[in-house]
Design goal:
Strand content: under 5%
Domain Tyr recombinase: 115-330
Domain Core-binding (CB): 6-91
Radius of gyration: 22 Å
CATH class of the largest domain: Mainly Alpha
InterPro entries: CB, DNA_brk_join_enz, Integrase-like_cat_sf, Integrase_catalytic, Integrase_recombinase_N, Tyrosine_recombinase_XerCD
Largest sheet: 3 strands, antiparallel
Number of strands: 5
GO molecular function: DNA binding
Low-confidence stretches: none
Oligomer: single chain
Protein name: Integrase domain-containing protein SAM domain-containing protein
Length: 336
Amino acid sequence: MELEPIDPETALKLYIAEKETSVADATVVSHKSRLSFLLRWCEEREIENLNELTGRRLQEFRLWRRNVGDLTKVSEKTQMDTLRVFVKWLESIDAVEQNLHKKVLSPDITSQENSRDVMLETDDAEAMLAYLERYEYASINHVTATLLWHTMLRMGSVRALDVEDYDPEEQSLRLRHRPRTDTPLKNKQEGERIIAVSGEVCLVLDDWIREQRPEVTDDYGRNPLLTTRNGRVAKSTLRTYCYQMTRPCEYGEGCPHDRDTADCEALETGGASKCPSSVSPHPFRRGAITYYLQSDVPETVVGDRANVTPDIIDQHYDQRSQKEKMEQRRGYLDDI
């Protein structure tokens, strides 16, 4: 097979143009953002023809990208998985050698690293929410994802909410510790608080309650905000929703792991957690906390809303790189 020359900028434009016809806008933005680093790397090395890409050069890019962004292993995996999809597309237009995508290496994530570091990346959260808003508006999946991402609440706190805890006029949610009726808060009475929610979140909640919420009570006669036909949603059910929603193929992205959807184990009943990209509820919280910190929301404000101390934020939630923290501090200190 004879390769057809193509420069990096043209290749990315063609790739994005194709993506725009098949995936959500937020997904297009996330791919374009991640692959922009490849363009930068090619420019620095004066690579004007992607025919020149080899397994060795892709490994050089991986090391460069890791150092430039001070990436966690989970973030590095996201970046390289997107690159693999792009390289596979390049193969389809005869721009690189066949099967080159198999030489795009990603770090292996252990279960221990996964439990500590994995989070729902902002690009992926926005792509997922955009898909849900368009195709599953005000569904139980849409409401669950909206609450977990926009409020930074723990799964147990989301599950504990009753319809009466939502005040549409004040645009707020009240968190209450009610262990005797099966909805304790992790920090008990100290976890009780009222949090503000945006108009966007309120619209979703209003339409869920009015149009889609099953009119049922729980075993204690309360009116759960999140319900199934059997009553208050179970924790295991919430985990299942999250694993299902966060599979990239579920919200319009191609599989970043080169799996065949015809025999992918993550698409089997009960197998959503087997997708390397899917996440449980807690990474929603970790990702949202990191997102708000990156957006220059003060740590004390984030901590009060999420009901977590600054020390715990630093130790378990904040996934900003040291360079990101430095640049944010610079923004405050340069004006003094």
